[in-house]
Specification:
By secondary structure, this protein is mainly alpha-helical. It has 4 helices and no strands. The chain is elongated.
Length: about 70
């Protein structure tokens, strides 16, 4: 599914493609943060979730720190 989405985004204008890729990452990041921690203690994002986010960063060809403030 992600490969199909990326194929579609490759056909979009550059700015819209970038905004969509950033949006996909932001959604994934928000889901990972929402499920983490135990009563607010410990990391919000687990190691496996962080690995998936790193993979998404590569696949989406984005730098999250530029738009998430990380």
């Amino acid at each position: 599914l992600l490969s199909q989405i990326l194929q579609i985004l490759d056909k979009c204008p550059e700015k819209e493609s970038l905004l969509a890729r950033q949006g996909l990452y932001t959604l994934a990041h928000s889901v990972a943060r929402a499920s983490g921690g135990f009563f607010g203690i410990g990391p919000k994002i687990s190691r496996p979730e962080r690995q998936v986010l790193e993979m998404l960063t590569s696949l989406l060809d984005i730098t999250p720190g530029e738009f998430l403030g990380e």
